């Protein structure tokens, strides 16, 4: 009898392992098959989608895609919402409402809500959960629920090379210059000049780069050394492995 119990237990473990492998393999297949690219748009018909751009599966809410233009080599992570207009099936006119440049990265769970024009320039990187919107509810009438009052809209522009940290919020009317850093959890409104670091809610400038004096206040960490020309990825991996060996050899032994 104990032998039979062991046999049944072993069979149960084997079935669970096989089921787990099948589930993971099936999910990987769905991720590949469900990804949206220029060659495999699925049900989505964007105004434009550049070569090398990929929307990971599963996608978030997407509508108004004829008024959405995506540049080349963009990475749109899972569960990212992209919408043009206040609701699906509206005629929004001849011009696009949401434009992403080349090399834009939108982290998992981010939202870009364009009821009027939103422009995100080349090489903008967004962490997970970033929220960018060109519309916001008003609260003028104290007797009417805020969610039922007509919203206000204003265009949003995010300049090239910006970095938006996890959970950052960009509100209607915001205009970010070139290479702006938005700290995680910040709420941005108004204009932000080129080469500025902003943080807080509302976001304020905490550091700027000036051609004459560099970063003010000065950076607290040294700038990373650029990779020398001609160094291959294999050589970099070998150097990293050598550094690990040296640290292990130098570690004190108990």
From TrEMBL:
The record's InterPro entries line, in alphabetical order, gives:
Hexapep (IPR001451), Hexapep_transf_CS (IPR018357), Hexapeptide_acetyltransf (IPR051159), Trimer_LpxA-like_sf (IPR011004)
One annotated GO molecular function: acyltransferase activity
Alphabetized UniProt keyword annotations: Acyltransferase, Repeat, Transferase
Keyword field contains Transport: no
Q: Name one Pfam family in it.
A: Hexapep
Q: Which SUPFAM superfamilies match?
A: Trimeric LpxA-like enzymes (SSF51161)
Q: Which PROSITE patterns match?
A: HEXAPEP_TRANSFERASES (PS00101)
UniProt family annotation:
Belongs to the transferase hexapeptide repeat family.
Q: Protein name, please?
A: Acyltransferase
Q: Which organism is it from?
A: Streptomyces bambusae
- Name the lineage: Bacteria, Bacillati, Actinomycetota, Actinomycetes, Kitasatosporales
């Amino acid at each position: 009898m104990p032998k039979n119990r062991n046999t049944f237990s072993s069979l149960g473990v084997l079935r669970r392992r096989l089921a787990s492998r099948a589930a993971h393999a099936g999910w990987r297949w769905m991720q590949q098959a469900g990804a949206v690219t220029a060659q495999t748009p699925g049900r989505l018909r964007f105004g434009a989608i550049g070569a090398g751009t990929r929307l990971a599966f599963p996608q978030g809410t997407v509508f108004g895609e004829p008024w959405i233009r995506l540049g080349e080599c963009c990475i749109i992570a899972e569960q990212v919402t992209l919408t043009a207009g206040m609701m699906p099936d509206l005629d929004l006119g001849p011009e696009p409402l949401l434009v992403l440049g080349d090399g834009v990265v939108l982290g998992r769970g981010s939202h870009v809500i364009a009821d009027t024009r939103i422009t995100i320039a080349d090489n903008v990187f967004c962490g997970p959960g970033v929220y960018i919107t060109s519309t916001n509810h008003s609260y003028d009438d104290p007797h009417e629920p805020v969610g039922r009052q007509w919203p206000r809209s204003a265009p949003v522009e995010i300049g090239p090379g910006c970095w938006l940290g996890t959970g950052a919020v960009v509100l209607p009317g915001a205009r970010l210059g070139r290479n702006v850093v938005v700290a995680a959890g910040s709420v941005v409104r108004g204009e932000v000049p080129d080469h500025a670091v902003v943080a807080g809610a509302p976001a304020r400038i905490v550091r700027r780069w000036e051609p004459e004096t560099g970063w003010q206040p000065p950076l607290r960490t040294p700038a990373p050394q650029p990779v020398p020309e001609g160094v291959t990825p294999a050589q970099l991996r070998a150097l990293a492995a050598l550094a690990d060996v040296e640290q292990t050899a130098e570690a004190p032994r108990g």
